[in-house]
Amino acid sequence: MKSRLVLVGALCGAALVASACGTRLDDREFRRVNSGVGGAGEAAAPGADGESATGEMVGTLPMPCNPGPDDRSAFTDTDQGVTADTVKIATIADPGGPKPGLNQGVFDSMEALIGWCNDLGGINGREVELELIDGKILNYNEAVVQACSSAFAMVGSLGVLDNLGTASQLACGLPSTPAAAVNPEQTGADLTYQSLPNPPWTFKVSPGEWLAQERPEVVDAGAAIYTDLPTTQMQAERQVEAYEQIGYDFPVVSPSDLNEQNWGPIVTEMKNKGVTYMTLSASFEEMIPLAKEMDRQDFHPVVELETNYYNDKFPEQAGGVADGFYIRAQTWPFEEAADNAAMAKYLEVMETYKPDGVREYLGLQAFSAGLYFLQAANAAGPDLTRASLIAELEKIDRWDAGGLQAPTAPSKNQGTSCFIMLKVEDGGYVREYPKPDEDADVYNNDIAPGYACPDSKQVELTGDD
Q: Worst-scoring range by mean pLDDT, 14-18, 22-26, 361-365?
């Protein structure tokens, strides 16, 4: 079992025990793992010589699902949720909560993936039964308890308050490969394995360093605004602490009300303090009225937003006031599917199995997490148990979902230094960096072509004020 972070104190303090350092790779080892050289290796792929048993691929990843052997005598009931013929998994998201439709793309991407998987034969011939459970934000623990009652594992889940269900998950021994673990209790929990880790004790500053080179004024006076919730406060404080280590100054670190109706005072405060850089830890629904108020007050700092803003609804509904905003991404852009076979396959699967489904960044993360689970479950063979699943998950030292995302080291709970900087423009998104021609030396790197992958740009955080 991989060593884990022990958390103490409240979320808003985000205090981390120093012994968590054992979960981190040092810079040299991380780049070695991400380059695919050395390490413990990956879980075995189906078929021979790196080819899928069905011939289906997700970019460079052989699709793990397959009909299995003709002789089924070795297939029996092996664990909760696993019979000779079926594997039951659960996915939790929050579309029915106070923010209707929140992360609906998680459900839609998982439905598409599992539909495709079952058409290919399932997990070694076992049909995958998918249960979608709505956590409704505040009912996440109840959703986990429901999953505990019958599911083999949670796969592709994403809950705003996922920390509420961690104790129940551990108590019932339920493995999870989430789309994202949001809160520290879940990020650091045993039995949680992320395909795209975001551990709370580190923060990726490479996008901020690039932005400071392109727009030097950003370091002078920053504003970190966040919805007044523990989760978003923690995220804002993490970014402030990390960016201060690379030279940014933040005279404004302020909360906003949930579903804030009056952004005027916050914008006025930023103007009065000469803010040149702004970020908002919230959702695009909050960013749009804030952007409109900034435009009304003729206030135009450089704006950099987190990856969760990468959603078609944001630029469409913003109506131009968000043009020029930067969004840091660590998955391949939907707009560039022609240049990435894995993204092309994802969109094809969505069109085939969930044509009206929501295509969004967090749904793409769920798809990657689902593939990550399927890879390990397939490698476990006929004797599929939670223990054998975890053993296979812990063998996967490098994961990029065939090219859907920047490479990570899931077994080490280690994120990626790679990123793509997108910009909102004309109702959509365009790549700002790295560009294939202007930044060819960066774009054509050996770790993740198409991404910028600078050396060791994960800084350590203490949570100290």
A: 14-18
Phi and psi, residue 118, nearest 5°: -65, -35
Rounded to two decimals, what is the model's pTM?
0.87
Are 460 and 23 in contact, with CB atoms under 8 Å apart? no
What does the alpha-carbon distance between residue 159 and residue 150 come to, in Å, rounded to a whole number? 19
Q: How far is CA 248 from CA 217, 223, 279, in A?
A: 10, 10, 12
Question: CATH 3.40.50.2300: does it fit domain 202-334+418-460?
Answer: yes
- Contact predicate 167/385, CB 8 Å: no
Q: What are the sequence ranges of the domains in the chain?
A: 18-68+75-201+337-412, 202-334+418-460
Distance CA 279, CA 301 (A): 10
Is residue 230 over pLDDT 90?
no
Amino acid letter for position 420 = I
Classify 367 as helix, strand or coil. helix
Rounded to the nearest integer, the mean pLDDT of the chain is 89
**121 vs 13: CA distance, rounded Å:** 47
State residue 128 phi and psi, 5-degree precision. -95, 120
Burial of 326 per CB tally in 10 Å (0-12, 13-18, 19+): buried
Q: What is the pLDDT of residue 39?
A: 29
CB 415 within 8 A of CB 458: yes
Per the CB < 8 A criterion, the answer to whether 159 and 94 are in contact is yes
Whether domain 18-68+75-201+337-412 has CATH 3.40.50.720: no
Query: Could you check whether 18-68+75-201+337-412 and 202-334+418-460 share the same CATH topology?
Result: yes
Amino acid at residue number 182: V
